[in-house]
Amino acid sequence: MKKYIIAFTLLICSFAFAKEQLGRGYPSAVISNGQIKAKVATQTGIDNNYYRGSRFDWSGQIYDLTWNGHSYYGEFFPKYDPYNHDTVCGPAEEFAQIGYENAKVGGKFIKIGVGVLQKPDNQPYNIRRLYKILDKGNWTCKVEKNAVIYTQTINSSVASYIYSKKIELVEGTSTMLVSHSLQNTGNNVISTNTYCHNFFMLDNTPSSKPITMKLSFTPTKGDFLPTIKGFAIVKDASILKDKKLTFTRTIVEPERVLYRDIPCENKVELNDFCIENNATGAAVRLRGDKPMFNLLLWANAKTQCIEPWILINIQPNKTFSWTNRYDFYEVPKK
Fold this sequence. Notes:
This protein is mostly beta strands. It is 6% helix and 42% strand. It has 1 helix and 23 strands. The protein has one helix at 2-20, and strands spanning 28-32, 36-41, 62-67, 70-71, 92-95, 108-111, 115-118, 133-135, 138-144, 147-154, 161-169, 175-184, 190-197, 211-214, 232-233, 238-241, 244-247, 255-262, 272-277, 282-288, 294-299, 304-314, 319-330. The strands form 4 sheets. A 10-stranded antiparallel beta sheet has the order 9-10-11-12-23-20-19-14-17-16, with no helix packed on it. Strands 5-13-22-21-18-15 form a 6-stranded mixed beta sheet, with no helix packed on it. A hairpin with a 4-residue loop joins strand 19 (272-277) and strand 20.
């Protein structure tokens, strides 16, 4: 009996140590609203950020979020590299590049949430490529009891803006709001799009039969991306039918499931999705307050993502705002 107690104690200590290491010692803050507790990255544009790549918005990563005994975020990638294009935790957001196609070699383009980047050659823009960051702009980060607020200011000949993001755990509820504001402070129109690569990890359950992604509409089609170097896009591991994606088996590395370019009607009420874990009961509903123009569904062995895309077009001296809402809940175990 004694050896079992020791083994159990070591297991608990190991788990506690692992939880403490979430974020790997990089700047972070723990916020709570009494129901939800989250460990959130507090990037401020410095050179020792947890994520330093040129793809995703540097702000707003959540290393860990728990509600009612369930966990929802973590590290899904096999190897940590701060400059890798997907060494991030959810909810990771990306903006389409601004000015890249018209820039000369050596010229400038912009990724909102990253900064002013340099175009190295005439190759098409590639999200998996690391581009040199010329100017990260001015970042600030304010921490409150139940919220973290980020602001990035960029002044450039390509585009100038003030970008703000607030992660808020709504007091006394199981709701998290991620609110955005993008103010065009320059002379050029800001035309881009954005989506959230949510990277959910519901109780660390692999992408497998217990996990279900639910949509608010029936997709008319969804194309598989051809095999990406180093990854296998598989068609036999999932079914997209009747407003939901289900897994037919467990996904293993380096396999990926991807449905892309799913047509969406221009109705904000369709920007409404759920992911449910029928083995543990963990579930989350995510909703946006803007209509989608595109939808992707993606998964690897450890994480599942619903990715609604929205358009952004901002005239000079105007501001565009949008909010993503997350409601955490439970479903009966099966």
